[in-house]
Write a structure and sequence with these properties.
single chain; Nuclear Transport Factor 2, Chain: A; globular; 6-stranded mixed beta sheet; alpha+beta
């Protein structure tokens, strides 16, 4: 016979577990870090389990858990440096002809796989949830003090009433409304909004992504330059530089990227509700190893922003293989239907399953990577 404690534990788990992905998305928005968000969610569940006997149902389980998660995040963020992208460091766009700086010792914003934040409910609710983790929006949140950040997320993303937000962050409704005004102004001044580029990838955008992958494979800078908007931005943590405009971006790719034609294979993923690609670089033995993860923002059928994250540990997180065989070139799934699958982020070349290796040592610095010796 189950004890009372076992019954309570089982009841808590059954009721609370369904909100795990929502809570993870909330903690990711607050922290800007996938790994930190995982720890914050664990702490949230621990605190909630300990306090479950005091839960009086005056609020829904979902609201109660988000309130706990918010306070866990606020405690963790006290005195902690924000997580920016290079464009958030306050420096102007860099000259692609200048040498790259040393990687900056900055706690950078990291992308999140869609599979970790997908609600599993209706397509409409999943789309709304993905809008709230768009890379530009999460980057904008990092400009805000933690309590302003929490107020904006709870009010504008989770649609809480101002009074509920005030109770969650331990302040007054008037203070919340004032904080919201300042937070929204900050987001607007950075021209970053949840409404920027969202939704499913349409046929025209899918065709753009196909051409984008092919242009990298061929290292065709003439084709690439026509794919970027006039004010497109390219940034690549941990390097502090960022670049603006099609000509500067393709000059960077043409001169700083160590691979040549047929040296860069790309596999699709989904990050922050946006199309993404793991880029693999060919090695001297003709196999490919992870180089960086690109997260793309689309403006119609053009690319307006690329975040190229030189953190090869992201490949495992996104379900991408640790290496590709020599006969790979990488491509979008043939049956993608205009959108990349959420729970199948990587697509291996046919017949390559037995060719993966777990001990690859991928380059993380383009200044150290070398094009293959042919």
């Amino acid at each position: 016979m189950a004890t009372v404690t076992e019954q309570v534990d089982g009841d808590f788990t059954e009721r609370a577990e369904q909100f795990r992905r929502e809570l993870f998305a909330h903690c990711y928005r607050m922290s800007g870090s996938v790994h930190e968000a995982e720890d914050l969610v664990q702490e949230t569940y621990l605190r909630a389990w300990r306090a479950y006997h005091k839960f009086e149902e005056r609020a829904s389980m979902r609201t109660w858990l988000h309130r706990i998660a918010t306070n866990v995040c606020l405690t963790a963020l006290e005195g902690q440096a924000r997580r920016p992208l290079p464009t958030g460091l306050g420096q102007p766009a860099a000259d692609p002809g200048a040498p790259l700086s040393e990687p900056a010792e900055v706690p950078w914003l990291s992308p999140v796989p869609d599979a970790l934040v997908a609600s599993g409910h209706s397509p409409e609710s999943a789309a709304e949830q993905h809008e709230g983790v768009r890379l530009a929006f999460v980057a904008a949140l990092q400009h805000l003090p933690p309590r302003q950040r929490a107020a904006l997320v709870l009010r504008d993303v989770l649609q809480w009433r101002a009074a509920e937000v005030a109770e969650a962050v331990g302040t007054t409704t008037a203070a919340v409304n004032s904080a919201l005004q300042r937070a929204r102004e900050t987001v607007r001044s950075a021209e970053l909004s949840r409404d920027d580029a969202g939704g499913q990838v349409g046929p025209e955008q899918q065709e753009l992504l196909d051409r984008y992958v092919a242009a990298f494979w061929d290292k065709d800078v003439d084709t690439l330059v026509a794919m970027f908007t006039d004010r497109a931005v390219w940034e690549m943590p941990p390097f502090p530089e960022w670049y603006q405009g099609p000509s500067d971006i393709v000059k960077l790719i043409g001169t700083k990227c160590p691979g040549g034609a047929h040296d860069m294979a790309m596999l699709p993923a989904r990050a922050n509700g946006q199309p993404a690609f793991g880029l693999y670089m060919r090695q001297a033995d003709s196999t490919f190893v992870p180089f960086h993860l690109q997260v793309l923002t689309l403006d119609g059928a053009m690319v307006s922003h690329v975040g190229a994250f030189f953190d090869t540990s992201l490949f495992e997180l996104f379900g991408l293989p640790t290496s590709l065989p020599a006969d790979s070139r990488g491509s979008l799934p043939a049956d993608s239907g205009g959108s990349l699958p959420v729970d199948s982020p990587g697509a291996l070349p046919v017949g390559s399953e037995d060719s993966l290796t777990a001990d690859a040592s991928p380059p993380t610095d383009p200044r150290e990577a070398r094009a293959p010796v042919r």
